[in-house]
Design a protein that fits this description.
0% strand, single chain, mainly alpha
Length: 68
């Protein structure tokens, strides 16, 4: 389930970046503000994914704590 969430979040991030590009053409100030906010959000998402992968493969932590 965890890899599916990661893939889904990356697809949503790409769609959001396309929307920002489209808005930047019509309203430059609004597009610039959205671009900065999107870059910050994507930076947080990338850091989260990288630390999850590191914790799983290097530290040996499970990807989820779900009880089966």
């Amino acid at each position: 389930m965890a890899p599916l969430i990661i893939i889904l979040s990356m697809v949503v991030a790409q769609l959001a970046s396309v929307i920002v590009v489209l808005l930047a053409g019509s309203v430059p100030v609004f597009g610039a503000i959205l671009s900065i906010l999107l870059a910050a959000a994507l930076g947080q998402l990338n850091a989260s994914i990288l630390t999850t992968i590191y914790g799983h493969y290097v530290d040996g932590r499970p990807l989820s704590d779900a009880r089966e």
